Amino acid sequence: MENGGRGEGSMKRAEIDTSAPFRSVKEAVAIFREKVLAGEVYAHKLNQIRAAATKEEETYTNRMSSLLAELEETKQNLEKAREETKTMSTRLVSLEQELHKTRTELTQLKSQQAHDRSTSQAAWRTSNSSKTPPISSRSVSSLPC
């Protein structure tokens, strides 16, 4: 066991950087600065995107809350309107029944009045058959001058 008792599958390879070293610190800063600045720029953009998404989500949540409250209010108003419609319908039926009853009573009173009038005229005629009927204002106006 040449490799210290390890199997061949567990051996890892490493890459070694053989590029030329930086000639100066200034050169290293110039190379790595671009990478660092790029990371900062992307981090800043990412934070802006996240902030915009959070704001948009808050706006959406507020709008949804507002719409749900409006929907609940509309449901309550609809239920109230249904109850009022039911009450008005019941009142209308009651008024129609009362109107029918009043019309029936009026018809009965008219027929009773007509019956009483014809009975009284017939009674007057029989009791005054030998007398001349009284002169009415109509009969006076129809007399020749």
What does this structure look like?
The chain has helices at residues 25-127, 137-141. The model has no long low-confidence stretch (mean pLDDT 80). By secondary structure, the protein is an all-alpha fold. Helix content is 74%, strand content 0%.
Give the topology, please.
Layout: H1 25-127, H2 137-141
Keywords: Coiled coil
Biased composition (Polar residues): 119-145
Family: Belongs to the WEB family.
The low-confidence runs, each spanning 5 or more residues with pLDDT under 50, are none
Class based on secondary structure composition and strand pairing: mainly alpha
Please summarize the sheet with the most strands. none
Mean pLDDT: 80
Record keyword descriptors for this entry:
145 residues, mainly alpha
Gist of the model:
The protein has 145 residues and is an all-alpha fold. It has helices at 25-127, 137-141.
